[in-house]
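We append the chain.
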Amino acid sequence: MADDLGAQILAAAVAAIGGEPRPGQTEMAEAVRDAFDTEKHLLVQAGTGTGKSLGYLAPALARLADEPDSRVVIATATLALQAQLANKDIPAAAAACEQVTGKALKHAVLKGRSNYACLLRVREGQGTEQDALVADPTTTSGVGAEVVALRAWAEEEAESGGVGDRDDAPAHTPQAWAQISVPVRECLGAQKCPQGASCLVEKSRQVARGAQLVVTNHALLAIDALHGGTALPEYDVAIIDEAHELASRVTGAASVELSPSVVERVAKRALTWLTDETGLDFLNAADTLQEGLDDAAVGRVTDPDTAVIASVVAVRDAARKAVSGLGGGSDDDTDRRQAAGAVQEVFDISERMAKLSEHDVVWVSESDRFGRQANCAPLSVAGLLRDLVFAEHPAVLTSATLKIGGSFDAVAASLGLGGAGAGWRGIDVGSPFDYGHQGILYVARQLPPPGRDGISDAALAEIAELLWAADGRTLGLFASQRAAEAAVRYCREQVPDRLILCQGDAHLARLTAEFVEDPEASLFGTLSLWQGIDVPGDTCRLVIIDKIPFPRPDDPLMQARQQAVSESGGNGFMAVAATHAGLLLAQGSGRLIRTMTDRGVVAILDPRLVTARYGTFLRAGMPDFWMTTDRETAISALRRLGKLS
């Protein structure tokens, strides 16, 4: 029976890696098996240290061994997590499965099209831009040499039967990779492409179709749903890891942007095949869009009669004519067909924005790097996930943080699963860590609430004192880059004998390595540190969070989502802003305890966590640390840890 196999596979895998049975992992594996049997969606909160990957892999492999014709898809939040599963966790579980069952199950990794080398670009579609880059491979930038190396590598992949996965490529910059890959819209398709017979993307999909276990990412899962199941092979069960990020990743996959520079670049690319009038209209549409954006206020656009919508309509109309002008032609004219794909994308985006659909949020944004651009995102992805993902397949959704405010309901609602009992169940298998004895939650009740003028002098002084007490060894998580930089400047002055690293000073991987290598170093930064860093041991003795991470009050998408909830009779602030903050607080505070021997303090410098009515809701999702509002208690605890080390 598959349930017996699952238990045996789990035991064999744990033994193979030198681990010990964990009650939470066993409970999770049993719940996943039951979800497969009942075809009922399952939400599993599995705290850090549970071993959740093996907790779902063991029953998944048992099912596949018992039902050889079935297929399981695992979707992770990022490509990095995909790689970890494919290179570490799955091989260990698959070896255990073969040991128990005698069956060797195949697995494959599947990514978006632009993550694979395009042989048309490598061999025939190089164009003037790529030719210029590689004309002198010894150029100062080094990009030309990278492109030459990538071309050679891609040919080796084609020769050896590889799939041209970017993760396996020689070291390169994004600019170099762009010269040997192709955006989705510009892909001609294997049937029409001159290199279709040897296409590496098609090879990756062929490999996936021959595998029983396919590892992908949230974005490709969304793309597969949006495009009628064309991105992934057919599957029977979905396992979604890091499921707390699914809604935001799907939102990103379903969002689009439009800028004058993009319209101008696409127009210039298409000029060769357009009449003078059509080409000039398309070029002028870029200027019209710029004028419309300049005339608009930064923020959400709801009025169809505004200049910015009129400018988007102008882009749409010009792009429509250009699409017609690029039609026909020879199938051998690959440059023309790729240009047509780029123009079609501009048309589709501008048409979607011009509609101002009630299901979309359109807004104008501005940045130092990109200037002004128009943006469009779905108001909600709940319906998309409900109808196109969860209605088709039973799913297991797991993460260390799925219970917000002590309940699964908020996350379930954001994913379209509905209220409790609506075809899903949730379980919390806990964590092997004893948070109450391993960590302290210190809330600085005496500090003033955060204001809009940046981090306060009192908060800066508090950070410096805490960092001094911890002998460095501090991870600072800030709501803004400005606050992080202010804290770094202050602490470098007040605690000059400690190395304090700031996100933005260098590549994050390098900063993280320095943080780990120097036990007394500290690292301050923003959002990517809240969820993307794992530093076990005494390197991280203190986690500082400067303020409750509510969404920016001027975030048009979050504003629109709050308004939609309120208009439907709900509490928009709690459903959107507080849920967003609760998830990040759970993730951020979870950076402290990563092993059974870790000890330390999480310091929240925002008194609203204990003074505001929503504070209890936010704290309910955080690890169950012993809590205090007394600064001296936190300082003394940190000093004691220093003496013990």
